[in-house]
Amino acid sequence: METMTTITSRKAIRSYTGKKPSEAAMQQILTAVQAAPVAMGGYDKLHVTIIENPAILKAIDAAGAKFFKKPDAHPLYGAPILVLISAKLGMGPALGNADYASAGILVHNMALAATDQNVGSCYIWGAVMGMNQDADLVAKLDLPAGFVPCCGVTLGETTETFAPREIPAGRLAITKL
């Protein structure tokens, strides 16, 4: 896909077939996460966890439902993979949000690569916040010391298609100085 075609075709996928992406597609998605820029070149302050274990996915899904106070919700949408980005927070007040911004950039790169590979993806924030309220669940992730889950992206095959969409010009306020 061309860059702008990929960008205008990307959308949140909330329905999955239950099948994982092909190995070739996953390799492209993981290359995209490695290619992402991060604040101050702090690659050592970020950690990627690929979660495919159905029991752990179910527990994260339940933690997200609890966080949203919707017991019947499934905030992972039945995706067979969650790629979780964790950060070693604490770059100081001047760069307080840089760790989260970097984590978001990693997720966005993966979502664009997933779109390019015709793989469904969806940004995940709330389920991660719910998971962070369950220390036993976070411990199951075997994260390096000091790392905190920040955000993630679901991945999986979908029956939805990807096509460029019209992007409204006035969607965001823009000031030119």
UniProtKB/TrEMBL annotation:
This is Nitroreductase family protein. The keyword Transmembrane helix does not apply. It comes from the Bacteria. The keyword Oxidoreductase applies. The lineage of its organism: Bacteria, Bacillati, Bacillota, Bacilli, Lactobacillales. Belongs to the nitroreductase family. SUPFAM superfamilies: FMN-dependent nitroreductase-like. One of its GO terms (molecular function) is oxidoreductase activity. Its cofactor is FMN. Residues 7-156 form the Nitroreductase domain. Keywords: Flavoprotein, FMN, Oxidoreductase. InterPro entries: Nitroreductase (IPR029479), Nitroreductase-like (IPR000415). CDD domains: Nitro_FMN_reductase. Gene3D superfamilies: NADH Oxidase.
